[in-house]
Amino acid sequence: MKHIHKKSNYSLFFIIHFSFLLLLPLAAHAEVRHLTLQQSIDIAREQSYSMRNLREDLKIAEYNLKSTLAGLKTHVDLSLTTPSFNQNIRTWEDSTGVSFYSVKRLDYSGTLTVNQPLITNGNIYWETGVNAYDDYNAFLRSSTLNTRLRFRQPIDALYGYNNVRANLKQARLAYERSQKSLQREELGLVYQISSGYYNLLSQQRSTEIARLDLERQTEANDIAQNKYASGLIKEVDALQMEVDLAEARNSFEVALINQQSTAASFKEMLGIALTDSIVLTDDLTYTPVTVDADEAVHYALTGRTELRDRDIAIELQNMTIRQTKANGMVRGYLEAYVQKTGTNSTGRSNPYSTTLSESYDNFIERPANYGVGLTVSIPIVDFGENRARVRAAKARQQQNIWSREELERSIETETRNAVARLNNNLKRLQLLEQNVSLAEKSFAITRQRFSDGDIDSQTLALERNRLNSAYRNHLSAYIDYQLSLADILRKTLHDYRP
User: Fold this and answer.
1) Tens digits of per-residue pLDDT, 203-241?
2) What would the DSSP string read from start to end of 263-289?
3) What is the pTM of this model?
4) What is the CA radius of gyration of the chain?
């Protein structure tokens, strides 16, 4: 039995060193991180893939909104040709046949366009420009001055569907939807990180419980071996203690491996290096929080982003209905313009200033061109095509309305269930705290009785298992309570923690 006793001590020495090597990070590359739950959440917000991707989606929606708003402002464009030279052969066909002649020209031009979109879906634009060319074959130099003011207004945009207003509203709703998606994903991330944090905390505490159990079992085994050597207990009791020690040692090894695996998953969740070492700073203390179910439902129904998302879908479908109806209405546009032109041709021996000056004189003298018109398109017979499309769009809208109502009921149900779980988990945690205190006192008494020889090893093993069970149940209750709090935050968007 002395050999067995030495063997157990050697094995314990090996396990402790094995656990040290298993938990030792790569010193050259590792960073030791002491993390609270809030610090873990902050790291994930900055480094997790889903949050970074959603922030880019929000930027996309923001830039699209800015682009739509910028589209309503004045646009100014300048087009220049400086210069353009062409030499080719052209054909002329008349009653006498086909003839060919050479064309050799040098062109200069510049055009300034100012376009102002209107919120009524129309636009006003002003275009002015100058064009000049040299005809080398005809030995001519010609120039033209031109300016044009034009107005165009679709009449159906005044009583039917306005594309400009619709695009602006769609861009704003898309931006709001991206904001809500980011907020919703952030709440989901908080719960996900909380779950991963407490899962790792559970594994770390389980490892600690297994280590303490191994120490207690080692001490009990030492006592049993001494008793057996003194002839105070039977050999079968000493062998049973050896078996219990082996089981405790195996449980500790398994706990170490599980802790390493859980830690790796949590590091991946946070987006940090797998070589970093994580130490969770949580002492299992808590503040009791009770939640009123009606109050929680009120917070959920007024704050949940999913409901606003359904409202946005209803607004967008209303726009689709209006657009579909407009396709069957009388359509058309009102257009008006006024234009001034001046032109002049002279010999190539004259400078450009001369032909431009004469073109300007002609521009002043020549009367303005103008025009105004109303074009109307009236649908007469479509055999109910547009009416059917409108009814289909309204049916989809009814689906959206029902979906929102069902979502409200679902949110109320899941919120009430979450509140019930929170309150039950709090009561369970408070009860199991008392059980841990009683189990510790009972084990201390039982261990002393075993040392005094009043009980056998089986009774001590039962009491040890009862203590381990109390520790594990309390840990499980604590984690369930903390996750219930995180779930309430996710479902109500209200933080009840003090």
Assistant:
1) 888 888 888 888 888 887 888 888 778 777 777 777 888
2) HHHHHHHHT--TTSEEEE---S-----
3) 0.70
4) 42
Helix extents (H) in 71-162: 156-159
Q: How many domains in the chain?
A: 3
Q: What is the pLDDT of residues 434-462, one digit of tens each?
A: 888 888 888 888 888 877 777 776 777 78
297 assigned to some structural domain = yes
Nearest to 216 by CA among 448, 494, 421, 453: 448
Do 445 and 464 fall within a single domain?
yes
Let me know whether 257 and 174 are in one domain. Answer: yes
* Of 330, 320, 327, 329, the residue nearest 394 (C-alpha): 320
Q: Catalogue the E-assigned strands of 66-122.
A: 75-94, 97-117
Q: What is the DSSP letter of 348?
A: T
**CATH no. for residue 230?**
1.20.1600.10
Secondary structure (DSSP) of 285-342: --------HHHHHHHHHHH-HHHHHHHHHHHHHHHHHHHHHHTTS-EEEEEEEEEEEE
Q: Are 307 and 106 in contact (CB under 8 A)?
A: no
The contacts of residue 189 (CB under 8 Å, 6+ apart) are: 41, 44, 45, 48, 50, 51
Residue 496: Cβ within 10 Å count: 17
10 Å CB burial of residue 307 (0-12, 13-18, 19+) is middle
* Residue percentage of the chain with pLDDT more than 90: 25
133 and 276 part of one domain:
no
Residues 296 and 308 in one domain: yes
Check whether residue 216 and residue 308 sit in a common domain. Answer: no
- Between β-strands 277-280 and 140-154, what pairing exists: parallel, antiparallel or unpaired? unpaired
- In 3-state terms, what secondary structure has residue 498? coil
Based on the fold, state whether residues 393 and 495 are members of the same structural domain.
Answer: yes
The β-bridge partners of 105 are 86, 135
Please, is 481 exposed, middle or buried when counting C-beta atoms within 10 Å of its C-beta (0-12, 13-18, 19+)?
Answer: buried
Q: What does the pLDDT read at residue 20?
A: 47
Judge contact between 259 and 199, C-beta under 8 A. no
Q: Are residues 322 and 413 in the same domain?
A: yes
- Candidates 475, 485, 487; CA nearest to 203 is 475
Residue 179: inside a domain: yes
The token pair at 93 is 């066909």
Shared-domain flag, residues 47 and 34: yes
pLDDT level of residue 30 (50, 70, 90 thresholds): low
Residue 14 to residue 55: CA distance in whole angstroms? 50
Q: How much helix, strand and coil, in percent to the nearest 5, is found in the chain? A: 65, 20, 15
